[in-house]
Amino acid sequence: MTFMLTNPGSASMRFVRASGEKTSVSRSKVQLPIKAVYLGGYGPSVKIGDTENFKRIVEDAIMAGYNLLLLTFWFDNETGIDRGASAYYWQELTVDERDELLDLARQQGARILLAAGGGTYNGYQAGGGPVFGAGAAQAVRELGLDGLDFDLENFTRSFGTRSGLNQEQTLQWMIDATIAARRILGPKAIITHAPEAPYFSAGWQSGYLTFYKRLPKGMLDYFLVQYYNQGPTYLDYESQFIRNPIFPKTAIAELIKQGIPKEKIVMGKLTQKSDGVPNSWVAPKEIGQWLKRAAQDPKVQNYKTGVSTWQWHDTGEPTSEEWIRDIFGPTSKKRKIKPIAKPPKKTSKKKATKPKKRTKSESPKKKKT
User: Fold this and answer.
1) Quick one: DSSP state of residue 284?
2) In the Cβ-directed half-sphere of 242, how many Cα atoms lie within 13 Å?
3) 3-class secondary structure for 231-262?
4) What pLDDT does 11 receive?
5) Do 94 and 21 contact (CB within 8 A), yes or no?
6) In the prediction, which pLDDT does 24 show?
7) Is residue 303 exposed (0-12), middle (13-18) or buried (19+ Cβ within 10 Å)?
8) CA-based Rg of the chain, rounded to a whole angstrom?
9) What is the pLDDT of residue 49?
10) pLDDT tens, position by position, 142-152
11) For labelling alongside 317, which of 76, 158, 192, 218 has CA 20 to 30 A away?
């Protein structure tokens, strides 16, 4: 994932707790299959402060059938949230507006998470994992969200970091960050990691596999594996689910065989070709066919865990609604009609005017590679 900071270091990005704001996290997980979508940044039609359009996007994503929404990106304790990212808009909502969206999500069996890190993050410092994990978790609590996604990238082939950490230091940083987040958010929150698929391979010292095996049980709910941006691979059922010849031991069956439970492996793909490396894109109808086959395939233990996608679109081909529908079929979700509140007694005979309908505009977009 690549997500450029528009104004790193700005004080306006830091969290401010609103009076009376809720800090508890969700009390239940989502049901399988996972249908996760990252809400990216803003486009030309979504200006800073355009919270009405942002609310519509969140509502549309929920009603399209996605059950895990990820808000991008919390960067670190100094920077906080990128001013151009979807989490920034959530931060700008009132407590009542956030609660309304959270209520809608939970009515529909969905949860909303904060994503931390991103493709531009490289602030790994020796011993700094607990600070990063605790800071991100506190941001989740400040914003009243349901959990946290660690989007950790920029690892070297030795599974060190460009900031100078070696493999052991990197692994300890990741483990410490995850444990710190779980301690703050509690056992009922959702905590995920979104590694690039090759990070499980020998080409990167099987770094993410080692991380999982060393991580204490109960710390991690899902891997939202980025099976994209690696060139023309993971393009058919065999290389995605059974055996990958380019990045050995990263196909889903291979991960299961190495000890990662199938229920934790979520297959990540691009929504549109322009969201990443174009030749790594797979048509959603084909993904849907793969999932039907996998559900009957003992080689992947009848895999039904689900998918994640970068990123939300309500324009272009396919839109995010079309993407998820092509994979799983039409959604049957319907909004619950709220009871109409009785209007206050009028002292004037002047008729009340009807509110104007909100027009639909383009959703925020941000490129992730």
Assistant:
1) H
2) 9
3) CCCCCCHHHHHHCCCCCCCCCHHHHHHCCCCH
4) 29
5) no
6) 44
7) buried
8) 21
9) 61
10) 999 999 999 99
11) 192
